[in-house]
Structure formats: structure tokens, C-alpha cells
Hints:
This protein is mainly alpha-helical and about 90 residues long. About 45% of the residues lie in helices and about 10% in strands. The chain has one domain.
Amino acid sequence: MMLFISGSLRDHICETKPKISFLKKYGSPKHTKPLALQEIQLYGRQILEALVFLHEKGIPYGHLHTGNIILVDGQVRISILQNTITIHHTK
């Protein structure tokens, strides 16, 4: 499995680092920042395009959330697993 150093969309919103343990990152969130309108538009469009692509290929995807949307160089990638799960397997 790959570890995405940039983290998930959830990491970005909560302003955390991907390598920190799940409970420390999200157990009692201290910081969350609203995304800028441009980010919401960009990520939203990319997510929808990815879901349309999967749908056209007959690939169902039913559990989309910020933990399994990975940010890579300003673009989103939909993952099957949350980045936090992949981190525990790469130690």
C-alpha cells in the first residue's frame, strides 16, 4: 500500500499531519478550517468527475468521505481505504 504524505482531505480540513495517530488527529479536534471557495469548487468537481468515471465503468463506490479522498499535488484521488489505515500498514 502507498502512503500519501500529503494526507487526506480530512487531514487538510483538520490541519493535521497524516503520520499522527488517528486518535491524536481526530479524537478531540482542535482546529478545523473552512476550505476556500476555490478549493471547494476544485475538489468537488474532481470528486464528481471521478465518481462519474467509476460509474461509467460499472464500478460501484458507496462509502465516500473526507478520509478516503487523498490530496496529491492539488488534485484529489479517491481511495478504497482511509490514509490512516494505510499508514498503520506501512510502519
